[in-house]
Amino acid sequence: MQPFLYKKVRNKSVYAMISEHSDGEAISKLIKFFKFNSIRGSSRKGAVRVLLLAIKRLREGSDVALSPDGPKGPRHSVANGIVAMARKSNAKIVTFNYKPDKYWQFKSWDRFIIPKPFSTIEFFASEPFSINHLSDAEAKIYIRERLLKNAIK
Description:
This protein is an alpha/beta fold and 153 residues long. The protein has one domain. 36% of the residues lie in helices and 18% in strands. It has helices at 2-9, 22-32, 47-59, 80-89, 136-148; strands at 14-18, 37-40, 63-65, 96-100, 103-105, 113-115, 121-125. A three-stranded parallel beta sheet has the order 2-1-3, sandwiched between helices. The protein has a two-stranded antiparallel sheet with strand order 4-7. It has a two-stranded antiparallel sheet with strand order 5-6. A hairpin with a 7-residue loop joins strand 5 and strand 6. It starts with a helix and ends in a 5-residue tail after the last helix.
């Protein structure tokens, strides 16, 4: 659902960080429909290459979309990558979220949700914010608070 929200809020080139796992291949193909690009890899595979490429894209003026909890969580955690990218590129962070009124929720580690047909979906986007004035630990807490503001718990 995030590409719908992104296209309403931002109008820039965007690169989504997507794992090289087989499910990442399906996601990579899907986001091309929304004219998104992808950076393939994760903290477990190609971490340094992915981080450097994401920072390069941010410095060029593109946006980088990612799930801040990394490939395996834990759920609602904030991994180091988003903090490092924001600091090294001097980029601001925008948190995106959505909340359907009716949904299925998986029993997976991330409690993934799928909106049910004909449900009403609320979309949320924060104002851009900087973490440059915060320590790494404070930045991760602040990002997490912003992410959970409208999240399904």
